[in-house]
Amino acid sequence: MDFQSCVNIKKEWDIVGARQLGRDISRKIGFGTVDQARIATTISELARNIYLYAGTGKVCFEALEDMNKKGIRIVATDDGPGIQDISQVMEDGFTTSGGLGAGLPGVKRLMDSFDIVSTEEEGTEISVVKWLR
Amino acid sequence: MSTLKLDLENYKELLQEYIKTKDEQALYQAEQFSKHSMQQNISPEEIINVHIQSLQEIYPDMPEYIQSSMNFLLETMISYGLAYQEFQTLREKQLELKSEISVAANMQKTLLSTVKPDLSDIDVGALSVPAKQMNGDYHHFVEDGKGNLGIAVADVIGKGVPAALCMSMIKYSMDSFSGIRTDPSVILGNLNRVVERNVDASMFITMFYGLYNSNDHTFTYSSAGHEPGFYYYKDRDEFEEIDVPGLVLGVSPEVSYKQYEKRVEKGDMIILLTDGVTECRQGDRFIDQEEILHVIKQYSHLPAQGIVDQVYKHFERLQDFQLRDDFTLIILRRNV
Ligand SMILES: Nc1ncnc2c1ncn2[C@@H]1O[C@H](COP(=O)(O)OP(=O)(O)OP(=O)(O)O)[C@@H](O)[C@H]1O
Ligand SMILES: [Mg+2]
C-alpha cells in the first residue's frame, strides 16, 4: 500500500493540519458535508490520541476505489506505549472525557470499518474506512 | 437512506409553510418530525444537513455566508450526535443489566430460602423484605429433630448485589457447619473465620445466633455486633433489650464470642430484627424503639406471624411504601 498523503503529528497544531488534508481528500472523493464533518472528527480523535498518549506519530490517508464503490481509509500510526486492554477501551463510557460520546467508540460509530493493532511498548495502528454512499 | 430522502421533502414543505405562516401547526409537526427522526437514530448533524438542503432549494440565491454558517453549525453538532448514540447503547445495556439482576434476585431467593419451623411449643413469625431487588439481610432456621431450633439473623453492611453475594457465602458456610456443634458462640466463631478469609475488608457482616431448646425452654445466644433484639416478659408485661457485646464478623481472625442463656416462660417473646426495622424513618425522623415495641404490643393478641406482618405493614405505610433498608423481623413466643 502506498500512502502518499500523511501528516506527522508532533504538536497539537498538527491535528488541524491532519483534519484539513483529510477533509480536502474526502471532498475530492465526493463525500457530502455531513460525512466530511464525521471524517474530520475521526481524524481529530485519532490524532489527539497520538498527541496525548504516544507523543508523536502520523495520520495517513488513502482514497479507495472498488469496482462499484469509493471511500477513504485513514490510518493512524505511532510507536508509543500501546493500548493494553483494547476491549476495555472500546467500551462505551470508558473514555477519560467520560460521557461525551467521542473517543474510540465514537470513531467506530462514525466509520464503516474499524481496526486496531497495538503492542505494548511498541505502538498502535488504528485503521478505519468510510465508504461513499 | 430512502426514508431520509422522503423526510427531506417533508421537512422542506414544513419549513416553507412555517416561514410563510408562522403557524403553530407547522411547529407541532416539526416536533413530530424530530421524534420520528430520533426513533430512526438520525443524528442532529443530519437534521441540520436536511435543513441546509431545504434552504438551498427554497432560496436558490441564498447568500454564501448563510451556507457557511450552517456548515459551521453542522460541525458543532457532530459530538452531540455521538453522545446521543452512546446514550442509546448505554440505555440498552442498562435494561440488560436490570433483567440480569432480577434473574439473580430470583436465584438468591431460592438459594437463601428457609422453612419456617412448625413447632407445637413455640410459635414463630418471620418476615424479610428487601429494599431493592436483592436482599442483604439473611435469616435461617435449623431444627435438629431433638427439640432444638437454631435461628440466625444477619445483615451485611452495604446493599445490593455485593451484599447479596456475600450472604450466599454465609448461607453455605452455615450449612457446612450444621450437625457438628450448635453452640451459638462456636457457630459465630467459625463463621467469623470464614468471613475474615473470604470477604473484602470493606464489607462487614453482623449476626445474631440463637438456639431455642424446647425441652427445657432455654434460649442460648451470641451476637456478632448485631442490632439488639428484645425480650418480652409476659408476667411483667415489659420489654428488655437483648444487647450483648460481640465483634462484627470478619474484622479479626480469632474472635471468641460470649454466649448467654435465658429461661423462657410461657407467653414470653423473643424479638430479633435487623437495623432496617429500627432505622425506619418517617421523613427525617427516626422511629424510636418505643414505637416499635408499642406496635408489637398492640398486635400481641395475634399469632407471631400476624404480629410480624402487622409491624411490617405499619412501618411500610409510615415510610410511604418505600423501604430504605432491607427489613427482617422474627418473633418467637413460647406457647405451652
Ligand atoms: N495511540 C494511543 N497510544 C496509547 N494509548 C492510547 C492511544 N489511543 C488511545 N489510547 C488509550 O486508550 C484510552 C481511550 O482512548 P479514547 O480516545 O477512547 O478516550 P480518551 O482519549 O481517554 O478520551 P477522549 O474522549 O477525550 O478521547 C486512552 O485514555 C488511552 O489510555
Ligand atoms: Mg481520545
Walk me through this protein's architecture:
The complex is a heterodimer of chains A (133) and B (336). Helices cover 38% and strands 29% of the residues of chain A. Chain A has 133 residues and is an alpha+beta fold. The mean pLDDT of chain A is 92. Chain B is of the alpha+beta class and 336 residues long. Chain B has nine helices and twelve strands. In chain B, 48% of the residues lie in helices and 22% in strands. The relative contact order of chain B is 0.11. Chain B folds into two domains: 2-95, KaiA/RbsU domain (Methyltransferase, Methionine Synthase (B12-binding Domains), Chain A, domain 1), CATH 1.10.1240.30; 117-334, Phosphatase 2c, domain 1 (4-Layer Sandwich). The radius of gyration of chain B is 32 Å and the shape is elongated. The structure holds adenosine-5'-triphosphate and magnesium ion (MG).
Report the bound ligands by name, code or SMILES.
adenosine-5'-triphosphate, magnesium ion
Helix content of chain A: 25-40%
Count of domain modules of chain B: 2
Instruction: Return the average pLDDT of chain B rounded to an integer.
Output: 88
Helix-strand topology string of chain A:
EHHEEHHEE
In terms of structural class, how would the helical and strand content of chain B be classed?
A: alpha+beta
Describe the biggest sheet of chain A? 5 strands, antiparallel
Number of strands of chain B: 12
Q: Biggest sheet of chain A: strands side by side, in what order?
A: 1-2-3-5-4
CATH level 1 class label of the largest domain in chain B: Alpha Beta
Q: For the record, what is the CATH homologous superfamily label of chain A?
A: Histidine kinase-like ATPase, C-terminal domain
* Largest interface, chains and sizes: A-B, 18 and 20 residues
Domain PPM-type phosphatase (chain B): 123-334
InterPro entries (chain B): Bact_Sigma-Reg, KaiA/RbsU_helical_domain_sf, PPM-type-like_dom_sf, PPM-type_phosphatase-like_dom, PSer_Pase_RsbU_N
Keywords (chain B): Hydrolase
GO molecular function (chain B): phosphatase activity
